[in-house]
Amino acid sequence: MDNFYVYMYLRSKKSKHGEAKTPYYVGKGIGMRAYSKDHRVRPPVDQTMIVFVARDLSEPNAHAEEIRLIALYGRIDNGTGCLRNLTDGGEGVTGRIQSDEEKRWRSERMTAWMKSHPLSKEVREKIASASRGKKRGPHTEEWKAANSARHTGNTYCKGRHLSEDHKRKISESNKGKTVTEESRARMRAAQFGHIPACAGWNKGQNMPSEVKRKLLEAHKGKKQSPETIAKRVASLRGNKMPPRSEQWRAKQRAAQIGRRLSIETIAKISIALKGKKFSEEHKNNLKSSVYARRGSAI
Q: pTM for the whole thing?
């Protein structure tokens, strides 16, 4: 139906955004839309300041004319002109710029609505089943760069402390969940060769004695379960230490000078080594390290 029109609201007097009789809003409508007060931008009191630019248009043509006029006069919110429009016109909200105040207001309203309308168990299960089995990506390098730039500088989790109730809920939701070997393999492959951005942040820094004391007190009395110890031993079995530089070896020897083991520690080491057989190469390495330590002490 070709009964759409495009209209403009004109200023009745001069303002900081434009002279008198310059447009302050461009819109597209049908029927009594141009005169309606149910609108973000109120129409002028003097109806002679409502100008109809084009009539008897199809909706696509009305959209096109609206876009043309907004581009011609420009918008106040993006600094291009005198109009109070928040979009570039046409269908949708293309080009709209939300203020920080509006974002905060929308966020608070949506949070309050979500709290008062919790999802039922059936709805949550439907959402979970619809997403189950779907794979993401692979993401392009451009997407990764844009996503990284979008999150750079975010501090919304900085200094955040979870309540005990929140921690309990997270713990209960994760109980009984197991990661498949396929998922573990993918995680290992994704992290292979990856160096975290925070790696080495404390290199060369001396930990204050107060921090050391707090860490020591926090770990006092804590013991690992036999299952955890067995898992660690199994994960380390067969792993070979990388070749150490002479500088690293010298530091280790210097750190051991003057160090004395307690009787309890010696007894534990003796019990742990009982029945173990060392190769001749291993024995020679131990002897050479002992002689080197004695020589350094002398």
A: 0.36
Tokens coding 238: 């067969």
Question: Residue 170: beta bridge partners?
Answer: none
> Which has more confidence, 104 or 192?
104
Nearest to 52 by CA among 80, 23, 85: 23
Environment class of residue 29 by beta-carbon count within 10 Å: exposed (0-12), middle (13-18) or buried (19+)?
middle
Sign of the four-CA dihedral 287, 288, 291, 293: negative
Domain-wise residue ranges, the chain: 4-100, 243-298
Interval 141-191: pLDDT, tens: 888 888 888 887 777 777 778 888 888 988 888 888 888 888 888 888 777
Left, alpha or beta for 82 (phi > 0: left; psi -120 to 50: alpha)? Answer: alpha
Give the pLDDT of residue 176. Answer: 83
Mean pLDDT of 28-32: 89
Give 193's strand partners.
none
The set of residues, in sequence order, having a beta carbon less than 8 Å from that of 289 and lying 6+ positions away, is 253
Query: DSSP code of 16?
Result: T
pLDDT at residue 1, rounded to an integer: 64
- DSSP H helices, the chain, are 59-73, 100-116, 121-131, 141-151, 164-174, 181-191, 209-219, 226-236, 246-256, 263-273, 280-297
Q: How confident is the model at residue 179, as a pLDDT? A: 84
Question: CA-CA distance, 153 to 155, in Å (whole number)?
Answer: 6
- Do 8 and 51 touch, CB atoms closer than 8 A? yes
